[in-house]
């Protein structure tokens, strides 16, 4: 079995664990377009001849471009941050403050990885003013992902990175492309707090727009689109006209984890080459 390639970033909702099952749902094509690239697990573990990888997070895209074009310089600078004296609350908050004050893409990229590995749960979160605000994580010895950075840099030779929203990403698609969408998860219930989604800039309206855009791209332009999301009545309704399948999400039953309810992953494939249904 081919060894799976891990992303170098920790990422909420990352697809590393689901990659084998998810890959089975991805149609063949020349280029994979990802409007929400996140940590890039799907890109790293698939075999398209080229990739268009998009995200609205400028820090993420700048970091990927650096690892793509100047891996040695980046790895040297980032590795210097992974020393015992930097694994400290005061040091972390000092870096976070400096990160929020600088606009230098190289410094921000170095600090971004440091905060990703030293911050709480590998979260990536900004306040309304655009300031990174994840608290310190208190890990014994944060891992420096040198091997993963080099592998990413190697894979990125066939990739183009763009800091754009999902609608613009769809506009750049062409014949021979396959689109994979991994949007922020839809809420598990209509009573779930919407504030987190507003903060992430992805509302229920966006979920519906994305579904419509995907359906039209497949029907009118013959470009297949696969979307993954929580399997809920809402998402099943949103993705009408798609072939639906579920991936069972492993449930870790433990005392501590009992509060974390895991929901199966829904795979919605719009592929009008096999499937015709008018909107």
Task: Explain what this protein looks like in three dimensions.
The protein is an alpha/beta fold. It folds into 2 domains: 148 residues, Vaccinia Virus protein VP39 (Rossmann fold, 3-Layer(aba) Sandwich), CATH 3.40.50; 82 residues, Adenine-specific Methyltransferase, Domain 2 (Adenine-specific Methyltransferase, domain 2, Orthogonal Bundle), CATH 1.10.1020. Helix content is 37%, strand content 13%. It contains 11 helices and 7 strands. Strands 3-2-1-4-5-7-6 form a 7-stranded mixed β-sheet. Strand 1, helix 2 and strand 2 form a beta-alpha-beta unit. Helix 5 runs antiparallel to helix 6. The C terminus is likely disordered.
Total count of helical runs of at least 4 residues:
11
Give me the strand/helix succession: HEHEHHHHHEHEHHEHEE
Please, how many domains? 2
Distance between the termini: 41 Å
Major sheet summary line: 7 strands, mixed
Question: Share of helix among residues?
Answer: 25-40%
Query: What is the annotated CATH architecture of the largest domain?
Result: 3-Layer(aba) Sandwich
CATH homologous superfamily assignment of the largest domain: Vaccinia Virus protein VP39
- State the CATH class of the largest domain: Alpha Beta
Q: Strands of the biggest beta sheet: in what spatial order?
A: 3-2-1-4-5-7-6
Task: Specify the structural class.
Answer: alpha/beta
Oligomeric grouping of the chains: single chain
Compute the gyration radius: what is it?
19 Å
Shape: globular
| CATH topology-level fold name of the largest domain | Rossmann fold
Strand residues, percent: 5-15%
Average residue-wise pLDDT: 91
- Which spans of ≥5 residues are poorly predicted at pLDDT below 50? 194-199, 275-279
Please report the total strand number as a whole number: 7
């Amino acid at each position: 079995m081919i060894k799976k390639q891990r992303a170098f970033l920790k990422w909420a909702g990352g697809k590393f664990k689901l990659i084998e099952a998810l890959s089975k749902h991805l149609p063949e094509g020349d280029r994979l377009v990802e409007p929400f690239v996140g940590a890039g697990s799907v890109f790293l573990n698939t075999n398209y001849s080229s990739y268009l990888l998009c995200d609205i997070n400028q820090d993420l895209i700048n970091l990927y471009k650096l690892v793509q074009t100047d891996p040695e310089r980046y790895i040297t600078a980032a590795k210097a941050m992974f020393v015992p004296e930097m694994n400290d609350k005061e040091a972390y908050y000092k870096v976070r403050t400096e990160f929020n004050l600088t606009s230098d893409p190289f410094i921000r990229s170095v600090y971004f990885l440091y905060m990703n590995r030293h911050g709480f749960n590998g979260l990536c979160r900004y306040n309304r003013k655009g300031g990174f605000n994840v608290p310190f994580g208190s890990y014994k010895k944060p891992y420096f992902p040198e091997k993963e950075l080099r592998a990413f840099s190697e894979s990125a030779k066939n990739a183009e990175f763009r800091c754009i929203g999902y609608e613009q990403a769809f506009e750049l698609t062409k014949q021979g492309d396959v689109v994979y969408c991994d949007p922020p998860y839809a809420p598990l219930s209509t009573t779930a707090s919407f504030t987190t989604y507003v903060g992430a800039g992805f509302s229920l309206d966006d979920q519906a727009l994305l579904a419509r855009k995907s359906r039209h791209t497949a029907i009118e332009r013959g470009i297949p689109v696969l979307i993954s999301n929580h399997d809920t009545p809402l998402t099943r309704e949103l993705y009408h006209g798609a072939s639906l399948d579920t991936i069972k999400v492993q449930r870790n039953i433990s005392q501590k984890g009992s509060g974390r309810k895991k929901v199966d992953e829904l795979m919605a494939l719009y592929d009008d080459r096999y499937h015709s249904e008018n909107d």
